[in-house]
Amino acid sequence: MTAPMAAIPVGAEQAAPATMQALIGAAPCSRIGFGTGGLLRIGSARARQSVLAAALGNGITHFDTAPVYGFGESERALGRFLRGQRARVTLTTKFGLRPSRLAARLAPLQRAARSVIKQFPALRQVAARNTGPLYSPPCFSAAAIRDSLESSLRSLRTDYVDFFLAHQASGDSMPSEEAIGILEDLRRAGRIRAFGVATEFDWLLPVLQARPKLGGVAQFDNEVGSGNVATLGVESNRLIITYGFINRAIAECRQRMSSALLADDFASADDDTLGALLLRAAVIENAHGTVLMQSRSISRIERNARAAHDAADDDRVRRLVRLLEPQM
Question: 3-class SS at 62?
Fold first, then answer.
């Protein structure tokens, strides 16, 4: 059975709890954050800046990035956007995964490559088989951590990041105790406000068991109804940041509607409506943390930002979650 959806206290929807302020020494994260993993899929630099502005303008003050997103272009675009308004936001970037030198040189060609793949879909599998040289294997050494942070700070045009997370750490590859000592030094120096881990949920628990000091910030996948947040457990000194694959969940909704009695309630709902309800469900499930979303559509950002904080449809949200419960 799906874990019950938590209730959000009145007035708690706008920001993660005050314990997080003590954790990072800054304003709490907004309840939804904006992920920039797909930012480079937006056609022009001006359009990317407009999308980021729409997120901030709609109360989304937490932004998530990483050196591998857009082969480094994501961090640089976000850095350009945040000039003069860094104090208004919280920032996550990551370490461990980095684009290769080849990837860095190819970054400006991404848009053209995507256009070719769109015209010739058969090339998608070829591209997937040859992505290995574009990413370096995970490296969590002390030197790599320092180098990654300095590079990210330059790209982001800031002198600190709020959250610095071990990207795709696993039981087979994670920061050593020495590396965690370096992270603590960086926090004391004010270069980072907090550190933690960003990885697949299936890999998360072994990492936290072996390196509990990485547990201050945990970012992981949490499909609606998966119960991952409940499985991990909520602690007062831990910030939980979750993300899901809304398009996948919408497709699952459509499939379930063909045979479920509850489907009549959603038969006329378009994908944007279902997506907004699913985002609200994720916010309810991660009741004391932050939920990441991403979109290339300004209107969808506006709609989702409203829906994430709107309790008026929560009964309908719960019915949608029941529709997605695992089938026996």
Answer: strand
Judge contact between 283 and 222, C-beta under 8 A: no
Q: Residue 51: CA atoms inside 13 Å, Cβ hemisphere, count?
A: 24
Supply 262's token pair. Answer: 């509850």
- Taking 60 as the threshold, does the pLDDT of residue 14 lie above it? no
Q: Are 324 and 77 spatial neighbours (Cβ–Cβ below 8 Å)?
A: no
Region 231-248: mean pLDDT is: 85
- Record the tokens describing residue 261, joined without a space: 């009695």
Task: Count Cβ atoms within 10 A of the Cβ of residue 207 and give its class: 0-12 exposed, 13-18 middle, 19 or more buried.
Answer: buried
Indicate the pLDDT class of residue 114, thresholds 50, 70 and 90.
very low
Q: Phi, psi (5° rounding) for residue 100? A: -75, 170
Contact 191, 149 (CB under 8 A): yes
Q: Residue 121: pLDDT above 60?
A: no
Q: What is the rounded average pLDDT of the residues 26-48?
A: 87
User: How big is the chain by its Cα radius of gyration, in Å?
Assistant: 20
Q: Give dist(CA 205, CA 217) in Å, integer.
A: 13
By the 8 A CB rule, do 156 and 82 touch? yes
Q: What pLDDT does residue 23 have? A: 57
Q: At residue 26, what is the residue type?
A: A
* 168 backbone φψ class: left, alpha, beta (φ>0; ψ -120 to 50): left
